Amino acid sequence: MATILQLNEAIREFVRDGDTLALEGFTHLIPFAAGHEIIRQQRRNLTLIRMTPDLIYDQLIGAGCAAKLVFSWGGNPGVGSLHRLRDAVENNWPAPLEIEEHAHAGMAAAYAAGASGLPFGVLRGYLGTDLPKYNSKIKFIECPFTGEKLAAVPAHRPDVTVIHAQKADREGNVLIWGVVGVQKEAVLAANRSIITVEEIVDELAAPPNSVVLPSWVIGAVCQVKGGAFPSYAQGYYPRNNAFYKKWDGISRERESFQKWIERHVMGTKDFEGFRQSLEGATQYA
Amino acid sequence: MPEAAYTTDEMMTIAAARMIRNGATLFVGIGLPSAAANLARLTHAPETVLIYESGTIGTKPAVLPLSIGDGELAETAEAVVSVPEMFAYWLQGGRIDLGFLGAAQIDRFANINTTVIGDYRKPSTRLPGAGGAPEIAASCKEVLITLRHNKRAFVNKLDFLTSSGHMEGGDSRARMKLPGKGPTAVITDLGILTPDPESRELTLTSVHSGVTTQKVVESTGWPLKVAAEVSTTALPTDTELRTLRDLNERTARAHAGQA
């Protein structure tokens, strides 16, 4: 059964130095509040898995939490580069970052295999590309029935998966809708899981066939209103595209990035404090 | 229409949009492909089914999404599926007619690089990476590629092969048993290139108005093959330009909000 906890308690209890973590959410419902709490609690040496590292891993990498990144598309969508990710890869700052690089289809297959308890995922993919030359985990196998050459990737089995969702009930059952990405697979693939939600309600009122994660597959549920900002929560608030554009300037230089993290993340107690700090700043930088 | 009545980027987007057949199912990349796909939907191809890798099928966004999973896409979609389902059932299942990709580098056989410039382990520029592109390039029945035309992009040799085009040319793609036919056109801000039916080498078949063949050859990092007869791309129509500009203006307004 899921325990309903404060986010800082959940991170303290579930996330350890050296863990393999997946913070998922495909553009939608990105668990920024949880990412910030990991930065505040100064977890180190993490292996970070995520299809699209996005601003959340740019922040974790720049803040020195990560030793390795497993990913398939590392940009600021529609804006440009993730400057902290690039600085780590190109200049080893603030620390060297090991890279394990996939394509989306391979990452999706690896999560689905993890959720299924299978050792690997199989896909019609990677044919002709250079990715297998640089990622030894991408292998080719022959279909035992047709002889077709297919790609295989080992299952993702994170120590902890963290996602953000719209709603939980008081038992800790969680409902997600809209772009649901790989969140369900990522939670089921993990040993432990934390789900932050917009609200905790008496009745989930989930229509049949909804994406519902039952309480008994979840570790902790934490209510963090607005916890996906600057990404979005369908039915609650839109994606803050203006912030995604601003991040380009904040993150471009080490100094401006560090100032931003110190002031708005390290210098605040929780996500509500972060939002107030950000609103109080005349500029986000 | 006078020469300077439109920009080269507008010409590129309009030329790319014209390649989209009404009613096609279309797997759309973000950026230039997304603009062209939506322009096609708003002009000559209203029944086009736009699919984004975030899981949105049959989406009809009023403004261009900034990311591949903006709420606008989900709210206006006929169906929203999970990402594993999108890549397994819909893309690898062979249900998509047309994939539409951008690129940082392209070679003469329309293989593309979106991963790194320079050495993979010590890159001079780390690009975002593969995303959905390798399997879009492999599994869609056909692929369109759109990018700006210059020697940094049109290279003799890719620094990294992210997504397969026609491999080493000839029948090499078919021999690798990639399911789709591969790239059928590359639309740039200078003209249109299509693969030779035999060698599969990209060949200049159309230049945009005001662009010389010489200019395209000089902007390409290999000795570019030029068709015996190079046509001139039709000028943007008033409807195409007005629709594209309205779309871009709506988009800029929407993305500037909540700053």
Beta-strand content bin of chain A: 15-25%
Query: Count of DSSP helices of chain A?
Result: 10
Low-pLDDT sequence parts of chain A: none
Instruction: Output the radius of gyration of chain B.
Output: 18 Å
Query: Helical stretch count of chain B?
Result: 8
Compressed to H and E, one letter per element, the order of chain A equals EHEHEHEEEHEHEHEEEEHEEEHHH
Helix content of chain A: 25-40%
Kindly report how far apart the N and C termini of chain B lie.
38 Å
Rg of chain A is 19 Å
**What letter string, H or E per element, gives the SSE order of chain B?**
HEHEEHEHEEEEEHEHEEEHEH
What topology does this entry show?
The complex is a heterodimer of chains A (285) and B (259).
Chain A: E1 3-4, H1 7-14, E2 20-23, H2 32-40, E3 46-49, H3 54-62, E4 66-71, E5 75-76, E6 80-81, H4 83-91, E7 98-101, H5 104-116, E8 120-123, H6 131-134, E9 139-142, E10 149-154, E11 160-169, E12 174-176, H7 183-189, E13 192-201, E14 211-213, E15 220-223, H8 241-252, H9 254-266, H10 271-280
Parallel strand pairs in A: 1-15, 2-3, 2-11, 3-4, 4-7, 11-13, 13-15
Antiparallel strand pairs in A: 5-6, 8-10, 9-10, 11-12, 12-14
Chain B: H1 8-18, E1 25-28, H2 32-42, E2 49-52, E3 56-57, H3 71-75, E4 79-80, H4 83-92, E5 98-101, E6 105-106, E7 112-113, E8 116-118, E9 123-126, H5 133-139, E10 142-146, H6 172-175, E11 183-187, E12 191-195, E13 202-207, H7 213-218, E14 225-232, H8 238-256
Parallel strand pairs in B: 1-2, 1-5, 5-10, 10-11, 13-14
Antiparallel strand pairs in B: 2-3, 3-4, 6-7, 8-9, 11-12, 12-13
